[in-house]
Amino acid sequence: MNTYKILNKTLGAVALSILFSTNAIAQKQAAKDMKVLNKEIKKKGNKVNVYMDLNLDDVKLASNKGLILTPILYKGEDTLKLPAVEVMGNKRYIYYQRTKKTATQNPLIVAKRENKEPQTLRYAYSTPYQDWMKNSNFAISNDACGCNQKLLAENLLTNNGEALVTPQQLYQAYQQPKAEAVKIRQENGSARLNFRINKWDIVKDLGNNTNELATIKQTLDLVKNDPDVTITSITLHGYASPDGSYANNDKLSRNRTQALYNYLLKTYPIDKKLFKVESTAEDWEGTLEYIKSHKIPQKEAALKIINSDMTPDQKEQTLAAKAGEAFRFLVDKVWPSLRRTDYTIEYDVKAFNLEEARRVIKTRPQKLSLQEMYMVANSYPKGSEEYNNVFDTAVKMFPEDKLANLNAALAAIDRGDKVSAEKYLKKAGTGAEVDNARGCLAVLNEDYEAAKQYFQKAVAGGLKGAQENLNKLNKIVE
User: Fold this and answer.
1) 183-293+338-348 — its CATH code?
2) DSSP character string of 179-209
3) Could you tell me which residues come within 8 angstroms of residue 466 by beta carbon, excluding any fewer than 6 positions away?
4) pLDDT, tens digit, for every residue of 436-457?
5) Quick one: which of 45, 177, 236, 352 has the fewest CB in 10 Å?
6) Considering the domain 20-161, what is its CATH architecture?
7) CB of 414 within 8 A of CB of 167?
8) How many Å apart are CA 188 and CA 342, to the nearest integer?
């Protein structure tokens, strides 16, 4: 390259530098005279939308000067510069038109300033939302490096700001359960006692009998010694396994169940009128349940035989003859565990006042009704750990209850537990209150369009509070 070209290039760079450079005092004054109007920074879905009007009515620029305005989102060390606005004096703008060169890369707006003329630039830009932007600040710089920043808003996109609504700010339709007229509860267990072949007398030290009898005692004591409960019935149901003749198994199941009944009467001072003694000669139902849910040899053949109209003895004989592998598997692995006595202790529980209920929920929550648990929850501040824990306990005690699942879902939404909320809402049924809860979960997931649809359904279903939620959502979602 010859000297002329080098010199020409150097002078061109210097000229460009002079055109891009702005007198610091003039730059600051121009930026000071610029007004930011109608500013909106909103989070919508996974986007952050920035809108503002840049009013230049009072801005004066020398013909060869430029004003660089760069919007910035920042929090701590995280900074995002949005595309800039470049406002140019007349000569600077002519140079831009000829060369298409700007002081910043890909500015959103390039405009010529006509001094003393009214002029407003509309800034509108969307950027992907990032987690750090929550509680971030918004500023606008007036130079290329972004050093001279003017703070326009702080703590943007916060859960407490106008730009975002949270479930805690919404109406949540917790439902008060009805009181139980009588609180009926039960304790269940299975005793797998060992007996000598074709015998039914109970031998305490045979096999695992000591532990099995101790477990029954522990269950009985839990209820019998509780002053809050009254035992209403004790059901013993004995089962024999299908191996062997039906007649003999019928005799064994009846006599062995009766033997346990006699043992309990002799051991505990319990009114014998409370007992119900039942028996099933051969547990083919339990056999079917096992086969359906497990892999066993010749599974389909075994199922076909067991589901047939054969007598119990014929089924056993046919299994042995035509599905020998399945038969041996059942004899060795399945049928021994079906020899048992199931027991159910049913009892009534007294009603509790608030003080008693707060004590009981920490020890034996199964004694409380949903209405009593609701009373306990509302004795704590809404949204507190104690408040939320009560609804979690309630749904554990009443896992299939629709109302318990609805309230547990709302508590989960309150603490930001999306997974649990979704799980509980699947069992909460339908209705305006459930639609409203689904709307609150959609807000937590920042799916505002879905939230609006759920709130609209809840409004149509007659839930007044859902209209409040819809109004709040409409204020922040276009």
Assistant:
1) 3.30.1330.60
2) PPSSEEEEEEEEE-----TT-----TTSTTH
3) 171, 173, 432, 435, 436, 439, 455, 456, 458, 459
4) 999 999 998 888 889 999 999 9
5) 45
6) Sandwich (2.60)
7) yes
8) 8
